[in-house]
Amino acid sequence: MFIQTEAMPDPARMKFFPGQKVLSAGNAEFLNDEAAERSPLAARIFQIAGIVNVLLYEEFITIVKDSETEWQMLKPMVLGAIMDHYQSGDPIINVNNNVDIEFETKLEKFLAPIPENNEAVAKIEELMSNRVAPAAEQMGGSVNFKGFVDGIIYVEFIGPTLGLVGGMTNIFSHYIPEVKAVKDYREAIPKPGLETPEGQKIRQVLDERINPSIASHGGHISLIDVKDDRAYVRLEGGCQGCGMADVTLKQGVEVEIKNAVPEIIAVLDVTDHAGGSNPYYSAGKGGAPAK
Fold this sequence. Notes:
12 strands; 22% strand; Ribosomal Protein S8, Chain: A, domain 1; disordered C terminus
């Protein structure tokens, strides 16, 4: 088995081409070893110290390392892990995860193209290919179109590309007047927790007290979901990958949320900090609960 490699503009990233199919379609991103449990291939790669992100595409694998480890040391181990996986006969992705299957089924149904939007979808795909894809590739990632519903374009941000959302909204709305916004595809399916009294209070706290204070730094914090006594937030813009993200979350956001909503006992950060301009979780810690 001959595996080719390709360096990327971001020195922390490298592509590996195994010469065999990786995914049958689309892509998948794994941010830590726990997430990699869905993929035996990603799990093998995460056993190597210094790996912080694994992205699977149809023809290649993108590996992201931390800032302290050199590719000269990592590369032979990654090549060995990929070769061992293909020789093992294990699947690339485990297909017996009922939660993932249910989510993907709901997502596919929700984002199914509406006939009257076919012309708009064709234009969106053209702009994605000609305008968005080159910009995302320069950043070391990609942006994939998922669906167009009620004026909202839903996309998947792979790698450090979330910062493109503002420019994408401007481009798409300029050429396609019915476009209202561009959002992460995971926001497509309504989450009941956001509509609970606790969810509404937390969003009010974020909108009125927290986000205005961090907007001057280009930051933004979104409430992703509320389940039981836990709130899930994502740090965006200047907050993603910021070295002070943990301090911001624990000393600011969590305190404000708990004061306003005493029922919440934990605030969980689900941000891909490794995709930010200054990754805070450089050791592959992934999203961690604020305590």
